[in-house]
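The pair is listed for reference:
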Amino acid sequence: MNFGAGIFELKDDSYRFDLSTFPNKLTKHNLIFLGLPQWREPRWKGSFYSKDCTSQNFLNEYSQRLNCVEVSSTFYSPVSIETIKSWKQQVGQGFRFLPKWPKLITHDQHLKYCDDEIKNFCNILEVFDENLGTSLLQLPPKFSVEFKNDLFYFLQKLPNNFKIAIEFRHSSWFENNRLYKKLENYFLKENISTVISDTPNRRDLCHYSFTGSNQVIRFLSDEHDSTDQKRLEIWKDFLSRNELENSYFILHRPDNINTAELIKYFSYETYSQIQVLSQNKQLDLI
């Protein structure tokens, strides 16, 4: 399968991300979820979707091929309860949605002075019920460790055992490729997960802090980057031997036309340790 000339040629070692020190004991409780940042892509008809698939059936066909999806629409505007219920009717019990926290809360208000909005979004997440993987909270690029108290106060407002994975986009949160120690320990204690962003242009965000039971890896591919295959191989090896309870691997690519083809390469051709998904069955390890 060809994803572009030179895409899998290695130019240098800048991609390296050493996960070899993590545990390699495999248990039957490990669940690996593979997905994309959307399902509404008409250009996938005839390749990822069937040739005659209508837009109303995109999600249903998507759920027969992959078992989770990042929901970015919640970042930009509210989603109605009726819409969520209609999504749930199109997928099986083993499928997981990963809704993003609203931009109003994360980027506009910086987690402050928005108690009503926080409560409302928590209520919306409850509608996903068993189909909720985890919620994704993406901090603004300039949200540095200087604002750590704002983050702590925000987390204290969430219900107990709340499903959330946090993406840090400022390098000040990290020490030696991990969250700074006090924060990492807090996340471990409270079972708060992180989002690990593996992107060629921001290696400082590709950290080693696996803290909660719903670990999210956002893999950003670029057809002009030579390290895609090497980075995919590293994650393939790690996920095949991990002890994480739930792992969500979300593959992003600037051009959505080829994103579905690349995730198929990762899950079916390269990732032979994973069973192929059926609509009402979670991807589990053999």
